[in-house]
Amino acid sequence: MSDVSGSELRALMARVPSVEKVMASAEFAALIGEYGRTQVLNAVREALDAWRISARSISAAAHSANSAHSTSAPQATHAAADTATTPPFSALDTVQLHATVDAALRGRNEPRLRSVFNLTGTVLHTNLGRALLPDEAVRAVMSALTQPANLEFDLATGKRGDRDDLIDDLICELTGAEAATVVNNNAAAVLLTLSALAANKEVVVSRGELVEIGGAFRIPDIMSRAGAKLREIGTTNRTHLKDYDEAINARTALLMKVHASNYAINGFTKEVGIGEIAPLAHARGLALAVDLGSGTLVDLSQWGLPREPTVRETVEAGADLVTFSGDKLLGGPQAGLIVGRRELIAKIKKHPLKRALRVGKLTLAALEPVLQLYRAPEQLAARLTTLRLLTRAADEIQGAALRVQPALQQAIDARYTVSAEPMFSQIGSGALPVDVLPSYGLVVRMTDGKRGGRHLLALEKQLREMARPVIGRIADDALRLDLRCLEAADEAQLIAQLAAQSGARTKSN
Ligand SMILES: *Cc1c(COP(=O)(O)O)cnc(C)c1O
């Protein structure tokens, strides 16, 4: 019996079409047009190799099944022998091969960076890309992508320019600072500032501000990477002005304050304000650097949002340098902005790391129109996407929840019940961690009232695997989808995607 499968195998192998023949066939011309010859050729070879390997292993299984004795798993023996008589592709033809190769190429060429629905309730979600750009910025990026631009070219003189010149005036206008520069992100801004101004010297920081921001940004680590020596003062909960005063010595380069972005200390606490530290620093001939983190440019309390110190207030209070992110509350592209005294910014710009950490033209293209929106503060809540999402009224979000609820209920199993309920969103990205915004969304629980741990996980996965993944969160025995970040166009797209899913479900039932 054993050589039946052997001869069958040989016959099948002989019928495998040659790579050259496959590549020259009409079916493959379109694939070659789309993906190019190299990729298609590799995919064809892989598919043929995979076919040969599986044909051989089936033949080998049949062989050993036939020579095995009945004591060892007779059922398995039977099954293997059955498959041997019906190999995977009894006649491997180009049509079949085409389907395999097409699927492989499509899968491999699908973009890994994909649009998702952010229904986490965290508006500035670092893992989902933080701030979304307003249309003005998107258009500017499009032009910068497709047309040459005066990135480092002075149009007035025809000479070489400095990329910072494109936006430093605008940043100074909005912050009240003397000078400004932009780098890759705020972590880079802090690293560069410390490297340029405090290498081999001491930087005085309160113990209450030695924070980790997440994603491995820790003030003590950045400090040592920059070659600066951290001089910790005070205690976790209380630091006094005299602690700063007593720490200053001949090796001191900077006094530094760090905004404790993602945690809050409550109770018996004492923090020294910039308005008190700055005069001390200046009297001792030192500079005060402030890492503001979020760095909002306007007072958010005018929209009923929690108050954060603005960059202008920080500069006016006496900070000599302020660093902040472009893609947190500012609502722009990923960037780190450094503003402050002219001679300090000049020193920072001359440091070799500035070249390594500089921003590209796409960042500058996006940042300029975002900053320009701040010149019309009365329109900001409508035009700056981040602020529009943060200020969205709960009853407007409730409207969306009521429209999406039936679509979601239809798309998922009857074991789950979807209800529209009030909830709270977060700003995110370390801004104002203790504050929450009244919102509305969908809450999915088990219909039988049980806790449904793994069923909820399965549903969460199902939504995450949709064409445009839906990202929610599981808390309190429910899957929660906060609709704050689902504006009109996205709402329509989500409903359509859910409707397609219900259609598929109905068909398969
Ligand atoms: C977010 C944050 C950073 C890091 O900023 P990135 O732009 O993410 O590099 C640094 N410091 C503080 C205080 C922050 O809040």
Classify the secondary structure makeup into a structural class: alpha/beta
Distance between the termini: 43 Å
Shape: globular
Q: How many strand units? A: 14
What top-tier CATH class of the largest domain fits best?
A: Alpha Beta
CATH homologous superfamily caption of the largest domain: Type I PLP-dependent aspartate aminotransferase-like (Major domain)
Give me the number of helical elements.
Answer: 21
How much is the radius of gyration in Å? 31 Å
The biggest beta sheet reads:
7 strands, mixed
Q: Specify the CATH architecture of the largest domain.
A: 3-Layer(aba) Sandwich
- Summed over residues and divided by their number, the pLDDT gives a mean of 90
